[in-house]
Specification:
Radius of gyration: 25 Å
Structural class: alpha+beta
Distance between the termini: 34 Å
Oligomer: single chain
Length: about 325
Amino acid sequence: MNDMSESEFRSAFGAQAQAQGHSEKRIRDVLRTFIAQRKSLGLYGRADLCNALEWIGIPLPSVTHGESRMEVGRNSLRALVDSARLREAIAPWIDEVRREMERLSSKKVSLPFAKYEQALDWLREESPGAPPEEVSSEGTRSYRTTLLFCRDPSGAGRGPVFKAGEGSPRNVLATSAKRMADASGLEEMDLVETILTGEEAALVPVVVRSKHVRAVLPTGGSIARTEVSITYRNPEVSSEDSRKIHRALRSAWGAERTKPLTKLDQALWEIIREVEDIPRERGTIPAFWEEVKSEMEARGFPYQTWRGPYNAYARLEKKLNRFTETTPPSSREEE
């Protein structure tokens, strides 16, 4: 489930980013980007806090990822049946992981815990460098779990809050939940809760994930882009589910009301890309766009005045940057 509220996300990110020494302006800039991305789907996923912290914390040059997700059909009959069968298949594995975590514990414990808060308190005690007490006592369950199990995009298990030592209960929990998720298709954080408390994990038939990638290139400049993937875990998708998926795809790029590129767009882009630098100074703009107007007329796209191609290119730039934005080395801003 995606149950971290926007206020929780803002509060948690701001507090930790300030603790890392980042300026208020930098924090506002990153928050603005992430909140805008999440509002496109209306979701705040469990990974969002980790992704934002990774974004602000990785030194340049870097590639950083932010991911949102939308779940479709979790409560369908097929999903409920498949969930039960998958839980039965991995039940012995879960028991084995619990025994290993109990063995590695510094004090005698019995898994699963009766209360989720008890489980998080125990993990904090067993994890050197754990976050402060309020992390495991405030906010939603997903929010608190996220702080303990943030991962980097490579899946190496490194979290911005603290690292688990090899052979610790948390390390066993994190690696085992990831392996179980890969094998079963059940959600990783649901499996964390299953191991800790016995709460049943449920299969999500369709997950729409939008990944927002920002890369600062070692030669200068940057690339920002979005890609969307759909994971189907059973074939029973209703027409209403299909409409939700389509809306999620369009929304991930902010493309709900945009039209596809046209031959006119292509012609204008090809002309402008041959120009080293578009004139921006007063007095040079009309002459430049008169030349572009003539070129467009030669390609079969007439305009009445130079303002026609000028305004068309402004719209084209906005459309292109909504999906993939590139910044040349000369215009890169220093962080």
